[in-house]
Amino acid sequence: MPGRRSKSEKSDDGEKQLRRDPYEVLGVSRNSTDQEIKSAYRKMALKFHPDKNANDPKAADMFKEATFSYNILSDPDKRRQYDSSGFEAVESDSQELELDLSSLGAVNTMFAALFSKLGVPIKTTVSATVLEEALNGLVSIRPLALGQFISRRVEKQCAHFYSVTITEEEARAGFVCRVQSSDKSKFKLLYFDQEDNGGLSLALQEDSAKNGKVTSAGMYFLGFPVYRLDQTMNSIAAAKDPDTSFFKKLDGFQPCELTELKAGTHTFAVYGDNFFKSANYTIEVLCAAPFSEEKENLRNVEAQILSKRAEISKFESEYREVLAQFTEMTSRYAHEMQTIDELLKQRNEIHATYTVVPLKRSNSSKGRSKPSSKESKEDGEAREKRSTRERPRKKKWYNLHLRVDKRKAC
């Protein structure tokens, strides 16, 4: 199949770089099952992993290309989008970052830890060294009985392996493997298939999640489909839009690959997924026979969730349509309110020309300028003096005119 062009990658000369078809990269057909795709990716990851090809840039590119292809084909929604519209449909949404911590340097590991603390969803893969040792049968396995719990500490990017043996009756009743850390350590719970050569290949993986005061992870084999809820997709959607977060909340509700296990011996492992320190944990395996009521409740609740996911998908289109109409109506409401206010203002101004009487002024006074306060004061004093002079002076009764003869001595 010819390669498809991706908008997100460009070569140095500015032209779009040709990206190969994910099916071609992994060497699988379009109708391959999820298990076949997973097995093909596992083989390529072990072959081209940077731990084994430290000085080979081509191997590093092959590893990245295989990981990118697996991220598309391992997700049912992404695979369906790619099959219908190619890379453009897959790359239209933000993709979660997947890192193999065993291949990171100290500086990059610090950045990864910082992003994780800030809430950026970073998916990590199991170290290729651990997977290769398991595949070659070079790991030590500790037996774990049903109902028994073991508390240990696992170093970062290392794994502790456990074997669990179940009978036919216990397999029909179902059982649960659960791990928790009271220190809120970050870890992975792994399940391995037994290969013909005696080695172990990774089949299931559950990342730990915060649950109250602990971090925990669990695998359920109950004889009917059991689902897991991946919060990574919802975290990415929430960063874009709260409405999108709501409608995408159940998209990460996907069925587990295995629903039941046969009688015999099965292998689990706890992988230390912390960036800088080891992980404290407690592992326990329980038979589900005493929990028949809980199993039935779980089956009913998950069936309701699936039904609700289908309803929400239909409701989203209705909600978007009504929301668009509401936005249009609120915009029109604001426009109509502004228009009415302006019309009423114009009406009041016109009414004012009829109801308010303007002051009448003589023509002679129109040309005169208003005197200043100082000039007004001087004019007032002058008028007062003139009025004083013009007023007739009255004689007082004691104001007698005496004639004095200056020639006569007193």
Structure description:
The protein is of the alpha+beta class and 410 residues long. Among the domains are: 103 residues, DnaJ domain (Helix Hairpins, Orthogonal Bundle), CATH 1.10.287; 128 residues, Jelly Rolls (Sandwich), CATH 2.60.120.380. The protein has 13 helices and 16 strands. The strands form five sheets. The chain has a five-stranded mixed beta sheet with strand order 5-7-15-9-10. Helix 6 links the parallel strand 3 and strand 4. Helix 2 packs antiparallel against helix 3. The protein is elongated and about 130 Å long. The N terminus is likely disordered. Keywords: Chaperone, Coiled coil, Membrane. Pfam families: DnaJ. This is Chaperone protein dnaJ 16-like.
Tell how many strands the DSSP assignment holds. Answer: 16
Number of helices: 13
Low-confidence parts, pLDDT < 50 over ≥5 residues?
1-16, 93-111, 117-121
- Average predicted local confidence, pLDDT: 78
For the record, the CATH class of the domain at 128-224 and 259-289 is: Mainly Beta
Give the termini distance in whole angstroms. Answer: 156 Å
N-to-C series of helices and strands: EEHHHHHEHEHEEEHEEEEEEHHEEEHHH
Shape assignment: elongated
Which range best describes the helical content: under 10%, 10-25%, 25-40%, 40-55%, 55-70% or over 70%? 40-55%
The CATH topology of the domain at 128-224 and 259-289 corresponds to Jelly Rolls
Radius of gyration over C-alpha positions, nearest whole angstrom: 44 Å
Binned strand content: 15-25%
Judged by helices, strands and strand pairing, the structural class is: alpha+beta
